[in-house]
Design a protein that fits this description.
six-stranded mixed beta sheet; Enoyl-CoA_hyd/isom_CS; three-stranded mixed beta sheet; ClpP/crotonase-like_dom_sf; Enoyl-CoA hydratase/isomerase family protein; alpha/beta; 2 domains; Enoyl-CoA_hydra/iso
Amino acid sequence: MIRTTDDDGLRVVTIDRPSRRNALRPQDLEALDTAITEAETPVVLLQGAGEAFCAGADLDSVADLSDPESFARLGQKVASTIESSPAVVVAGIDGPARGGGVELALACDVRVATPWATLGEPGVKLGLFGAWGGTVRLPRIVGEGHALEFSLSGRVVDADEALQMGLVSRIEDDPRTVADEIAANDHRSLQVIKARLRDRGPDADRFEAEAASFGELHRANVEDIASSREK
């Protein structure tokens, strides 16, 4: 089950299956994709209910898969929706994040762990691996060395080690404080900054897009810029 609430520039998306540590079935992934796609707020906070962030794929669903490739592509689709959303998506990782839960967090723009967060890719112990885009995003975020060791060992890291690796951005008691901090900024700037930083095109094209975006924002906000200078 996926719950959403919208409040003052922030959509909170909650994976709400605490009895299963918020493990995701195909229908949950579809609902999560819809919750992100339909967000009209500049910032989205993705969190889990209860004592876990997300245990990844529901193992009952995985055991019964008749088309595992389609399930992997569904997880990839949701992660790509998060990554490409015009909203800034913050992962609020409180408690365990495992497998697909880590992969969804990797697709988010900012990952905030609580001191009680733990992260791991245990699929290797079951003859599986992170196939919701994890093999692409993990080395991009933490580097190839950390990505290989983390994925091949299947070990669990705590919040402090995750921060040292670059797997999370910050450690806070309440991740919503970071989401609120981001949402308090100029909303159009947030969208433009995300688009520019997420751009994977040639550098020359990215530089040109950066200059064009700066010009658009400047013209849209010139009065506020002048007012700020006078203070």
